[in-house]
Write the structure tokens for this entry.
Amino acid sequence: MKRFRTMSIRKKILISMLAFTLIPVTLVILVATRVTYKTMRDQLIYDRRMSSSWLENRLSLELNETLDQFYQFEVDKELKAAIQNWHALDDDLDYESRRKLLTSMSTILSMDNSINEVSLFNLQKDHVLVAERSAAYMAPIGDRLDLWNKRDPDLQTNLVYLRNDKEIIVCHQIYRFHDRLPIALVAIHRRPYYIQKILADIKTVPEETILLFNDQHALIEADYGTNWTFDEAYIETIRLKLQESNQKEFSGDDHFWFYREVNNGKIQILFSVPNKTIIAALRPTILNSLLFALMAVLASVASAIVFSHTVTRPIRDLSEQMTSLKLHEHKETPHPRVRNDEIGVLQTSFDHMIARNKELIAQTFKSAVEKRDAQLRALQAQINPHFMYNTLQVIGGMALKKDAPEIYQVTLALSDILRYSLNFSEEMVTLEEEIRYLKSYVTIQNKRFNDRIELRLNLQPDTLHLRIPKLILQPLAENSFEHGLTEKPGAWILTIESRRGDHGELIISVMDNGTGFTEERLKDIQEMLKKSADDALHKDSQIGLANVDARIRLCSPGNGYGVFIESSESQGTTVRVVLKAENEGASE
């Protein structure tokens, strides 16, 4: 200290400036590195969390599509009857039943190039019906059911994933209705590349690992990262820990783990990200920060040397200059100049932070729009395939009986329906277009039910050009036919009314003179309609009223919109659809 007092002013200024330069710069480097590391680590973890959720939703869609393939054996009366007759001890599989079953199995096979084989096992007899890409045949079961027989009988049998060498086998067990006796098992043999492609798309860096387990905790597919060293026992410990945890995430052993369940655990996802991935992503930022800091130190040292050599004024003059410099630094300018000291580093970091935040906001908004669009498309795509089968049966029956003009009428109506329902370029159509589609639908149904249906339209002219979600009236009309009119003798009257509400909303009423619902059944339906659009997507029974209500609430968010039902026994049913009125030409 005594020696410092005896130094010249030039040396005092030089030493002081160096000290006041190096100390803040060092602190800034430490703080900025820590803050940057934490920010980037949190961001990378958030990105992986979103990737895990996306993978969960993607696999959920795959499971639902597979369930749709299985359910045709449950809901098609002819297929179910053929399976039950084949199961009976005193009845073999006749030619016609075998043809129908193989046709359905071959259709599943041809619609998905990842499927190698579709098998239908008779659980009473030692026979399996097999449809391959090159052949279809009946064979003894042999050891084909070994994997299935090893399963715990208490586990679910609705949708089961098993791994057999190079194939993923998806199974569904069919029961006899009246006593819940298992009579058959449908198995789809798939090449695993369709799941491998999904896993490859979700990975950001090669070091990440994604593991998929079935409901009995067996590994069905994996995409291992580089330098993967964990054994099966440790992975099972991590999986159990995350399965029992509410947070579904865990950090340990230099890895960050994410756990997700698809469709109540039918598939379980374990996502591993090594911490070194985060450090590797952070390294360029740290190096840039150090480079900027080094430049700031060199500039400060050079400035201090020059300043110490040139300053010869008294301390008071120096203080005035520093005060003036502070006032000048606090002056707001539209475009502040880039500095080469710690303030410049902070400004650069802040600019990077602002730019990153804007990117995150844009990504979040885009993800929300894509999720909503996926929900709308998923709901719109849920059309009952039996209508197509019934229509084809009508046309075939008429063709066998006589060469009549009605065949052309039915074919033309079916063509209009296909053109309308399978055109996904527009999700919103005018009420007039929807009514035109409904007329074609009723025309075909009249041929099916011997012209018993009378369609009455009471549409206010100012509602015809309002836009509504596509394909919302046909499911409601179909519900009337299936649940209200089929048991009613005499004429079937289906009435469609439209009007504007007191607050400008569009109100569409679908009324029938059918048998109606009991009070208990009506309450069950009304409770179902209170559930969210996400519930409608993830439930198995996602057609009819729930489908329409979910789509209405996605397109018209807010209270007061959706589907409302009124009914009483023997008095018919009224379904009222309330949605926002949107004029033709408005942006979707």
The chain has two domains: 1-305, 382-583.
